[in-house]
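User: Sequence in, structure out. Go.
Assistant: Echoing your sequence, followed by the structure tokens.
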Amino acid sequence: MIIYGIHPVAEALKSGRVREVRVSGSGNERVRALLAEAEALGIRIRRVAPDVLARAAGGGVHQGVVADVGAAETIGLEDLVAGGEGVPLIVVLDGVEDPHNLGAILRSVDAAGATGIVRQTRRAAPLDGAAAKASAGAVHHVRVADVVNVARAVEDLKAAGVWTVGLDAEGEIPYHDVDLTLPTAVVLGAEGHGLRRLVRERCDVRAAIPMAGHVGSLNVSVAAAVVLFEAVRQRRSRGRS
């Protein structure tokens, strides 16, 4: 996949999956440092014309550098549940198609130390380009399990002993009253219409983030961050008790 921007490319170099770095011009100090790191790792560096770089980035803000990155290791749902450290904390995405929202969610998952993400192979934003840039490189560190059917994945998580919490503006309980110290999957719906009915009905509980202002809901990436860090707070508090 193609990623662009200084920080995303720098994070990709840490993952060991960069196959080639393309650069235009001499670059600034940060670009030169990045190129020195790529050269030390034995990664091919190709200098190209500015318009070639712009086309590769699809019009995104590339900051003078683009990288060709190999695909991440494919993992299944069971690998995600069993392979993390500590009590599972998983984010399930039901049709989140905006790459900037996906990138922001990836960044929050990484920052919270969560286990990873489950997403549907259809109706999902790709992990390259804008999503990788918005994630600030977290896309190279977060484990992602692709599934064919999110509703079935929720059932599979429940069968594996994971508590499934659907975020819904009409939820019956405030998110901070949910016990997030349990093995938990936070299920988030698409921008605009939220969780689909079949997915919503399969969740163990529907939780809401109370709104005190005039707007009825939060952006999906902000909602993910709010609940993830409530889980972090609860787990740290439980660990001190």
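User: And one key feature?
Assistant: The chain has two domains: 2-69, 77-240.
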